[in-house]
Amino acid sequence: MKVTKEEASFETLREIVKILRGENGCPWDREQTPQTLKKYLIEETYELIEAIEKEKDEEIREELGDLLFLLIFILYLYEEKNVFSYKDVFYYTAQKMIKRHPHVFGDEVAKTAEEVLKNWQRIKKEEGKSSSVLGNIPKSLPALQRAFRLGERAARVGFDWEKPEEVLNKLSEEAAELKEAIQKGEKEALKEEIGDLLFTIANLSRKLNINPEEALKVALEKFENRFKRLEEVVEKRGLSWKDLNLTQLDQIWEEVKTSV
């Protein structure tokens, strides 16, 4: 099967999936179900996000293709079972987007992003969707990202701190409660207080216009690079981990921090 750039289309990818799923297709592809492909969907989405963060166009193009192919694959699995077709997906999505943008496709007026969000929430309520301002934020989102989004939604109706400094006060309060829970040694209380502390940090990040998920990723990358450098120094100096105490490791760590 040969495909030119001019010929390539949605139908091309759909046809490839059809062949892979066919009698003489790929054994692995024929075994897949929407359930087995969920993990790959998450993985491919994060690979695309990482490519976007790097701002490397070729990687973005490749990862967009991988994610698109996976979506077409999943869509085809539902077509096989006659649940719905790709035309159903396209049609209902187009209808929803047109309906939810009456300021573009209709007579309503929305001059700001805030007005658009209010209209969007009202229309969703009319459609019978969740009337909560929190909406339907997926529970499968990374918890820190979900905390950020929940705080963002609640802030739309004024349930929010006015200044970041106020969140810092709340952070001190939550830290004190965590300290008390540590002293009591109650595991469930500890879990709850750590959760409250993390949620408050997510809200502080939001008030500072910083996505906590992205901030944590930067911190993890920095820690990983520094720790690997620490390992290199320990090995280069002929030292043994079991013979190094925390004070000695901290001294090397401080050295490493100046270079990484």
Automatic annotation (TrEMBL):
Tell me the protein family, please. Answer: Belongs to the nucleoside triphosphate pyrophosphohydrolase family.
The UniProt entry, under SUPFAM superfamilies, shows: all-alpha NTP pyrophosphatases
Q: What class of enzyme is it?
A: hydrolase
Q: Where is the NTP pyrophosphohydrolase MazG-like domain?
A: 32-105, 164-228
What Enzyme Commission number(s) appear in the record? 3.6.1.8
Q: Does the keyword Coiled coil apply?
A: yes
Q: Origin organism of this chain? A: Thermodesulfobacterium commune DSM 2178
PANTHER family xrefs: NUCLEOSIDE TRIPHOSPHATE PYROPHOSPHOHYDROLASE (PTHR30522:SF0)
Report the coiled-coil segments: 168-233
Picking any one GO biological process from the record gives: dATP catabolic process
Q: Which UniProt keywords apply?
A: Coiled coil, Hydrolase
Name one molecular function that GO assigns to this entry.
ATP diphosphatase activity
Q: Which NCBIfam families match?
A: mazG, PRK09562.1
As its record notes, the protein acts as a catalyst of:
ATP + H2O = AMP + diphosphate + H(+)
Which protein, by its recorded name, is this? Nucleoside triphosphate pyrophosphohydrolase
> InterPro entries recorded for this chain?
MazG-like_dom, NTP-PPase_MazG-like_C, NTP-PPase_MazG-like_N, NTP_PyrPHydrolase_MazG
Source taxon at top rank: Bacteria
